[in-house]
Write a structure and sequence with these properties.
CATH architecture of the largest domain: 3-Layer(aba) Sandwich
Radius of gyration: 27 Å
Largest sheet: 7 strands, mixed
CATH topology of the largest domain: D-Maltodextrin-Binding Protein, domain 2
Number of helices: 15
């Protein structure tokens, strides 16, 4: 069963109708300029004739651009791109034949072996070459290279803010029937348009130093961060992702009201997560509201004795971390599809659990069990996060006055 909404492909009738509209507009404009049925202008001076021809040339160019845009925006259906296997068994066979896959990933070179160990053991004939990438500048470079026909990667982690542009630019393979080809993938892992596959996930929670916070005072919900007892003692990242992540549950009004109340509790403003979590462990403040689960998990993985603990609020924002796509023209597309599918499978998510970035939507995964233990509810930010998050963050930051740190 394909979870992505299917759309009808471009038809000849659609193209003919669009072309007819183009010609009708062109005919009307030429008649308005005074062209006769033979395509010639009536007698006029040279200056007027040149001006008229310049205008009609501009009209033709504008209409051609419009027509091209209509075709680019026409609906597409999930289909089988040339060269990709028609079922899982064929994908595996072709991937083994390709023998390699070049991945641009948000994982560091130290993290990648932790995640990829299981894939390498299961598919020893496929060599995985990893490049650690991040940021929109690097993705912009990939976008331009693929447009120019230079395809360096078979699988790439595309930033959420650039996904729409990658699809409109035609630089990613798809739409793909992911769940038909790879049935072990959960629905949250596949973008509705069928172009992207998510592997890593982020949770926003409350972090605290157990040496500074008594067991009966542990903040267990977002409302606890407003408690006057913590006035001037709670740290928060000035990038309010934990609040924007609650948008689909709380709505704008409640978020902005909370942001104002939170500011009145005189939080300790921090720029970024890694340094703030290290300071939390060092005892510089007792609580961090909106901490990244993966950041605290990473610190504890490095130092199991670190004075760090986590509390899961009643509503836990969940966002997509690694969002993988296969660039158009990837030379090892089957190996890329197989790897992307494995990363999103329960087996791959267990590997991501080793970094604290597994999915809370996979039953019996580490995060799934944690959600059950705390009786929390996940608030999935969704694949449309880029549509609402920037504006929401800007409004929250406006309420906070965009503090730069303390």
């Amino acid at each position: 069963m394909i979870m992505a909404k299917m759309r009808q492909p471009i038809t000849y009738r659609f193209c003919i109708d669009a072309l007819s509209a183009f010609l009708i507009v062109l005919l009307k404009e030429t008649q308005a300029l005074g062209y006769n049925s033979y395509g010639n202008l009536p007698e006029c001076n040279l200056e007027d004739g040149m001006a008229a021809k310049t205008k009609i040339t501009r009209i033709i160019l504008v209409l051609m651009v419009f027509f091209a845009g209509v075709l680019l925006r026409a609906p597409r259906a999930a289909s089988q791109p040339a060269g990709i296997g028609k079922n899982f068994e064929e994908i595996v066979r072709l991937a083994n034949k390709e023998g390699r896959v070049n991945v641009g990933t948000g994982l560091t070179l130290e993290e990648a072996p932790v995640v990829l160990k299981g894939f390498n053991q299961k598919y020893p004939k496929i060599r995985v070459e990893v490049t650690s990438v991040s940021g929109t500048a690097r993705a912009e470079k990939l976008f331009n290279e693929v447009l120019a026909g230079v395809v360096e990667y078979d699988l790439y982690d595309v930033p959420a803010a650039m996904q729409g542009r990658f699809v409109k630019g035609g630089v990613v393979t798809g739409p793909l029937p992911w769940r038909k080809l790879l049935p072990n993938i959960g629905e949250h892992h596949i973008s509705p348009d069928g172009f992207f596959n998510a592997s890593g996930f982020n949770l926003r929670i409350i972090g605290y130093n157990p040496s500074l916070v008594p067991a009966n005072k542990i903040p267990k919900d977002w409302s606890d961060c407003l408690d006057p007892a913590w006035k001037g003692k709670i740290a928060v990242d000035v990038h309010p992702r934990f609040l924007s992540g609650l948008y689909k549950s709380w709505g704008e009004a409640k978020i902005l009201e909370y942001a104002a109340q939170f500011k009145n509790n005189q939080p300790i403003w921090k720029n970024g997560q890694t340094e703030a979590v290290a300071q939390l462990a060092a005892g510089e403040f007792p609580v961090m509201c909106g901490a990244h689960y993966a950041t605290i998990y990473s610190q504890l993985r490095t130092d199991p004795k670190a004075k760090l603990a986590m509390a899961l609020p009643k509503e836990v924002p969940v966002s997509l971390g690694e969002i993988m796509a296969i660039p158009k023209g990837a030379p090892h597309a089957n190996a890329a599809l197989l790897l992307a599918g494995w990363l999103s499978s329960p087996e791959g998510q267990k590997a991501y659990d080793g970094l604290g970035r597994g999915s809370p939507f996979v039953k019996d995964s580490e995060k799934w069990r944690l959600i059950q233990k705390w009786k929390s509810k996940t608030i999935f930010e969704g694949w449309d996060r880029a549509d609402y998050e920037p504006g929401m963050i800007k409004k929250i930051a406006g309420v906070w006055g965009f503090p730069t740190g303390k």
